[in-house]
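Table S2 (text version). Query chain:
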Amino acid sequence: MELFIGIDVSKAVLDIAVAPTGDGWSVPNSAAGVQELVARLREIAPRLVVLEATGGLERRAVAALAGAALPVIAVNPRQVRDFAKATGKLAKTDAIDAAVLALFADRIRPQVRPLKDEQTQELEALIVRRRQVVDMITAEKNRLLAAPPSKLVRTAIGRVIKVLQKQLEEIDADLDNSVRGSPVWREKDDLLRSVPGVGKVLSRTLLSLLPELGTLGKKQVAALVGVAPLNRDSGTQRGHRFVWGGRAHVRAVLYMSALVAIRFNPVIRAFHARLIAAGKLPKVALVACMRKLLTILNAMVRAKTPWTQEPLT
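Corresponding structure-token output:
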């Protein structure tokens, strides 16, 4: 009998459920608890182990299970919650969530992907922290504009902005050192940044948050980022195509780069002009340019070919 494991992760406890047997147990979310979990799962040799990505709480368990050569994947919590609703499981406890994850593993069977190495995880952490600092700087600048006419308040906000800007400079320096210190990343970074409209932020975001770049087809990578048009048809009705899901952080950075590419990249500029001339709405044309830019970058990384006016597709 093939067994599927669902693990609900909390700060203190890991709740485990087994499908289709319905067995379940709990272990502490600690080094000792994870080792106990690994030993027990080795005995039953499951077909698949599924956890939710919970902001980092799952990393110790995922790393230990993968290190023990067990088939493990951390999935998007939204997918699991939608699956639970579709199967009529509306109640929510840790034990129920573990059972839902086990059933999700059995019915959906998501594909196991290789884990990111330590360097990639470090680069990802820096990218995420950079985005957090940028958001905090924006928030403080907005507070400065809306602040009452108090010199003390404005001075205090100004000091916070200076500290955050200094931290942003330090993070950018760490990112530079990380990328330039890796021959593989340095090669990919040089390839990506040879494209007009692609800067350091997009390049390093793709390196850390989209390691699949260059290994997938253009439709697959567009769907992964969330810029692939999805149908909304029913019977004879043909609805507007729309984009949804995917990796939101990558999509947000790609959006800003597409705005720049429309002005300075001759291929993207001509493509955008054709879409506008054909009557496409500005937002639709911009998303299409995002997808076009991503397709070009994907082909370049796959072929290890720098930018040309006629890029590979």
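Notes on Table S2: DSSP finds twelve helices and seven strands in the chain. The first helix runs from residue 31 to 44.
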